[in-house]
Every structure is written in C-alpha cells, then in structure tokens.
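Now read this:
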Amino acid sequence: MKIDGLEVQVVRKPIKNMYLRIKPPNGVVMISAPRRMAEQTIIDFVRDRRPWIDNHRRRMALARERSVIGSLGDSWQRGAGHGGVGLASGGFDGVNNGSSVATDNAALTWTKELRERASANINAQLPALLAKWGPIVGRTPTHITLRVMTSR
C-alpha cells in the first residue's frame, strides 16, 4: 500500500490493536492491523506517525552506513570503488523523495574483496582481544574460524 509516497506493507492479523514497525536493514515500514479495520484508519495512522517514521528510517540508514564504513576502515568513500557499497548504490539515504524504500541490498552483500578486507581487519585485532580476554575467561581458543553469517 502506498501512503503519501511511502510504501507500507500491511499485514492483517487476528489482533485487537494496530502496530507499526520499521524493519532493518532497509527501513521497510510494516503495519500489523486487525482484520476488520478500515483502510482509511490505517492511512490516518501512518499519516499521524509520519514524522516518527521518517526520523527512524533516517536513523536506520545512518546506522547502516556507519556499520558499512566501520567494517571497511578509513579507505571507504561513499559508493566509490567498493562494488556498489554505500549510498551511491541507490540505498535509502534518509531523505524521503516520494520513492519507496530501497530494496537494493548492495551495502549488505559480501563480495570477495569485502570478505578479505573484513578478515584482515578482524585478524589484525584478534591478538589484542585474545590477550585481553584470555586471562579473564581463563581459556584461550585453539582455533578461530571467520564466517559470513546471516541474521534476521
């Protein structure tokens, strides 16, 4: 459903109240609504909360950008030279220009270059972390494996 240029996913459920969620990583706006609720009520609900929605989508986009920048180190430039990573790839930049939420997950795709850079970054930090936490925990690992993981 599109409300004032904002793409909103409405899920009808056997519930009593309406709930609004902004889902990471791309800031998808989800509304859980009672099955029998009028569509106009949902539209009014979204319009009343539009400043809150825009603010939280902007914060989510900035957090995603910071996490990408942090994982790439100081050599990161906005979208340049990193396989489409960053806002130049068409991701949501926090500005509502009437378009729907970006579904481009380029900033979340692990290319071979990004995996190697992340691995080098983690491996550079491991000795200090092991030296700090080994005595605290009382054990040190015999082997460390780095894996690209997916979470909800």
Observations:
- The chain has two domains: 2-109, 110-152.
- The longest strand covers residues 6-13.
- Residues 2-109 form one domain.
